[in-house]
Amino acid sequence: MNRQEPLGIAVIGTGRMGADHVRRIDRVISGARVTAVVDLDAERAETVAAGVDGCTAHTDPAAAMAAADVDAVLIASPGPAHEAALLTAFEHDLPVLCEKPLTPDAASALRVVEAEQALGHRRVQVGFMRRYDAEYVRLKALLESGQLGRPLMLHNRHRNVASPPFFTSSMLISDSVAHEVDATRWLLGHEITAVTVLRPTPSAGAPDGLRDPQFVVLETDGGALSDVEIFVNCGFGYQVQAEAVCERGTARIGDGHDLVTHMAGRWGGTIAQDWAERFAQAYDDEVQAWVDTTRRGEVTGPSTWDGYAAAAVCEAGVRSLEEGGRVAVELAEKPPLYR
Amino acid sequence: MNRQEPLGIAVIGTGRMGADHVRRIDRVISGARVTAVVDLDAERAETVAAGVDGCTAHTDPAAAMAAADVDAVLIASPGPAHEAALLTAFEHDLPVLCEKPLTPDAASALRVVEAEQALGHRRVQVGFMRRYDAEYVRLKALLESGQLGRPLMLHNRHRNVASPPFFTSSMLISDSVAHEVDATRWLLGHEITAVTVLRPTPSAGAPDGLRDPQFVVLETDGGALSDVEIFVNCGFGYQVQAEAVCERGTARIGDGHDLVTHMAGRWGGTIAQDWAERFAQAYDDEVQAWVDTTRRGEVTGPSTWDGYAAAAVCEAGVRSLEEGGRVAVELAEKPPLYR
Amino acid sequence: MNRQEPLGIAVIGTGRMGADHVRRIDRVISGARVTAVVDLDAERAETVAAGVDGCTAHTDPAAAMAAADVDAVLIASPGPAHEAALLTAFEHDLPVLCEKPLTPDAASALRVVEAEQALGHRRVQVGFMRRYDAEYVRLKALLESGQLGRPLMLHNRHRNVASPPFFTSSMLISDSVAHEVDATRWLLGHEITAVTVLRPTPSAGAPDGLRDPQFVVLETDGGALSDVEIFVNCGFGYQVQAEAVCERGTARIGDGHDLVTHMAGRWGGTIAQDWAERFAQAYDDEVQAWVDTTRRGEVTGPSTWDGYAAAAVCEAGVRSLEEGGRVAVELAEKPPLYR
Amino acid sequence: MNRQEPLGIAVIGTGRMGADHVRRIDRVISGARVTAVVDLDAERAETVAAGVDGCTAHTDPAAAMAAADVDAVLIASPGPAHEAALLTAFEHDLPVLCEKPLTPDAASALRVVEAEQALGHRRVQVGFMRRYDAEYVRLKALLESGQLGRPLMLHNRHRNVASPPFFTSSMLISDSVAHEVDATRWLLGHEITAVTVLRPTPSAGAPDGLRDPQFVVLETDGGALSDVEIFVNCGFGYQVQAEAVCERGTARIGDGHDLVTHMAGRWGGTIAQDWAERFAQAYDDEVQAWVDTTRRGEVTGPSTWDGYAAAAVCEAGVRSLEEGGRVAVELAEKPPLYR
């Protein structure tokens, strides 16, 4: 598929994230266009399609994927719908960019791993977009340069202004810490072997019954520790910070600010309020990278296996949250396709 | 020109800057494509054109602008060639993105202003790309919000690792400080009324005979001062910093860094080495903004008048550098087109 | 003892810390003088005494404390010698500034608590000098102001360039983390109820057999968590950092730097190499505060109880380090004297 | 005067600064005591003396200096009274710490220089306390190390929350910029050869008629430039910042902050409101250094010549402020005593 004409993409799901990807492909990304959108809500699909030249609306993913002008699929529907959409895409042998989580639990994620293995080649890039964030990319490059020696610990902070109404205590692990799970695996190049979730007294700012904040300790097969503060009702801003502590030094990202003011006895800057603001460039780069590799007939980026591993770790994390104590992570054997 | 098909652009000049714009339009920018490139060096034009699908190579700007698939012109040739290219574009009534300087001196810049006025509508966006840099944009928005009160002073730092071999003492003003001239006018909304260039002992790191660094004081018709340290052989990095001192506080940009390390008794981060690294996003946004407004049939952004005003101020600055002391800036009356 | 003449102090122990206190009282602190020094090594005591006008040398603490010109005692001998020196001081009813640890284990610390109770008034200020550090003092004041809401978590970093040859894995807890144990209790106003020590793979920079770094999680009776990275062979500097995460915001100390350089592609500053450099002002203020309150006949600052509580927590920490898992902390009932 | 008993000091002037020095010597500084205070306001002198053990009150400086227990003099009276007090101290051959300015103008300062020369040895340390500030000391040490190469420019910021009612436009130069005049001479080791004072439109926050802010450019005999923003009604805090731009890098002081908070969408810290807060340690160290050298019979620190040079530069600055344009500085020949 080394082609001149733009890549035709079917976007499955037109909620906040799906609609944002449609906008991105239509306006920001070069070399691709949205040829189909899919949503169970037919009206919403029609509205989104109407704004894009040459785009059709569907309620059934299979119908969209069968269309002649669909060369690739971007899955942005809710997690429980991912498995079916992925398997349909495999039937058409279409490349897929699948928003995280790959699927909601480790068992279903492993089924997708097995199905992709049966195809015999990688078709899925999972939406762990921190791997495309300029700061994470610099941190990863620094760690790989060996300048700081071997990483020993990773301290992570993940803070949101407020959680949406449907958010549960387990979702702090499976929805939020999932990013740090992948970032830990990717930055350190280790698998995670055990998870402990600690529960300080909830903040008065958290909705009743929500265990927020939580403090998560991940142990890796390389002997490193990665701790994560997750605090989804911190009230003051959206912050993602990471500090890698290595044998000869540390490196920290997430403090970067571009405008500093001095007034009224205080100096400082503003804090992003939202992931869409903080990671705008990473989302653009992620989709652009996928469009470019897809047009060259390649699949790179976070794999189905990465999605499965995150699901398995989060599942252990939720057990630690609910039952207390340390929970070991058990992973299936890694298929050759992902080595 | 409210159109679905991509905007066809002729790029005049295929040196470092021109070739970079060709790459940007081809790969980064959506909604536009390069349909023609022009260079006096026919071989270089051919090489660049060969890398872009459906792009023709020319040695004569007029021939390129006459082509049916050319809807707009991006001028990235050396400054002395700009006037002729602009006037040719005016003959075809084509929208133009013209790299700074508009032209090399105030007299020729004023001729372009007059020619555009004769057309009766704006056709030119000048390449003052700092107006598209995320940090400058935030600083401008903060100043306009009135939170800090009226701006009284602007302190600017502009540092390059090393100057190219052909760089002269006047080029520190007309090529480098030109950016701060426009930034001062744009951020403060004032015209510049006088320039004083001070010459400390040159650095041992500067080539023989080059007056580097220089310290420039700009006075404005709003009673503000803007000082500029220009140091093009600072040796250690590329830095562009600005601090606006206002009645109720100050705001500073250019210290922002995204990765901080602690090792070997030192903490800190790296410094960009180059404008292409520091302002990559601003160039992308600048060209994208131009493509988008052009497709809607509009012209926004820095105008021909802005290019002329910068030329006039720099000309006064070069006189202050050469003759010493304060030199008043004389501007023609501002035509209604630019109000 | 509301007096004009300087306070006469016997300094017990003339090693690095004791000699530094002698210098401080002699040269920095107003209102006090060193009238006696004590060391098992008679020669070292003589040498130190010779440098101070009117100072006598002793090998027996009891003899020094019996001297007419000794009004107060500063204990800076090794931890195992503290209990005897404290009990002797109690016999003479002398005010004591006792370097941390109060004593090496919880049982002996509790005996000192009981002896002071028997006296019926506080006589001991324990050398937890972070309570006098300007940054900690500001953090404490901010937390008490209520601006940030209730503290939920405290993230601590404690890094040394290299550990001395005699340092053992348990000493990372009992000697180093002891500071964070007290800082956690003091900043949050909570008692610590459980300790978990995690052991990542040791750094290649740590001496053979030393478990360095360690990661310690403290749970408090106020439902807060306090995590401590202790890394005594980090190689790059001495760093003490703390971030309090509260219901409405966070506050961080320990990043403060006073000289920032930009050169050779890097920006940043230097990192202190040593606690004596980082906390010089805190030590001065600590001793001055003690001299001043002593002259007014008062005892304030960290109490014997604070020393005991730290000993008990560290003892639990060492057990967690050695046996793995979470170890609950059991404290005796708090005597009325310390309420 | 290599002595054990504390140095007896007469403090001339008991206003805010004098009273603060009395407190400092009494409570902070070791090795010295206040034996006499002098003030034209007899009642104020009595009140201050009453708070210090063994201290007498005077209205005549000569009477105080004649007292047997006065070994040294600290002059903190208003500037116009300095010359007479200094000459009286010279008659008694007493060491003097004289608050800046040495005297209010260059002619009187030169008379003091000549009188000290006639004595044949240095007796005066001028109160340029920035030379004792930890940050300035580190900057000076870095410049002298040669790491950054030769200094080319010095950018200074000097901001006060609000000016006192009696402050005039010239006092921004002679009272405030005087510190940067000395700092420039001391940091660079150059004499200042010309001064230009620029006057942007005054801030709405400045009292009617006060030219605030001002922007001052100092030229040195080493070919360096030093620019100073002086803004005494900035409203938001007390800030003293300096950036030395050298051949191989830059170094900046004055951004140092020890407590950073994140809350309500903003990160940052507080700004000192006052020189007494910002430079407390420098004042302590200054007086301690003077006490220590005085007791050893030495005179070090800023000399009478430094005081004279500052007076001459400020006088030129005030002329530039009033008459506009660049004013050359004329210095007398430097006597051998100060070389």
UniProtKB/TrEMBL annotation, chains A, B, C, D:
Signal peptide: none annotated. The keyword NAD applies. Gene3D superfamilies: Dihydrodipicolinate Reductase, domain 2, NAD(P)-binding Rossmann-like Domain. Residues 8-128 form the Gfo/Idh/MocA-like oxidoreductase N-terminal domain. The keyword Oxidoreductase applies. Its EC number is 1.1.1.18. Residues 140-329 form the Gfo/Idh/MocA-like oxidoreductase C-terminal domain. It catalyses: myo-inositol + NAD(+) = scyllo-inosose + NADH + H(+). InterPro entries: Gfo-Idh-MocA_inositol_DH, Gfo/Idh/MocA-like_OxRdtase_C, Gfo/Idh/MocA-like_OxRdtase_N, MI/DCI_dehydrogenase, NAD(P)-bd_dom_sf. Keywords: NAD, Oxidoreductase. Belongs to the Gfo/Idh/MocA family. PANTHER family: INOSITOL 2-DEHYDROGENASE (PTHR43593:SF1), PTHR43593. Involved in the oxidation of myo-inositol (MI) to 2-keto-myo-inositol (2KMI or 2-inosose). Homotetramer. This is Inositol 2-dehydrogenase. The gene is iolG.
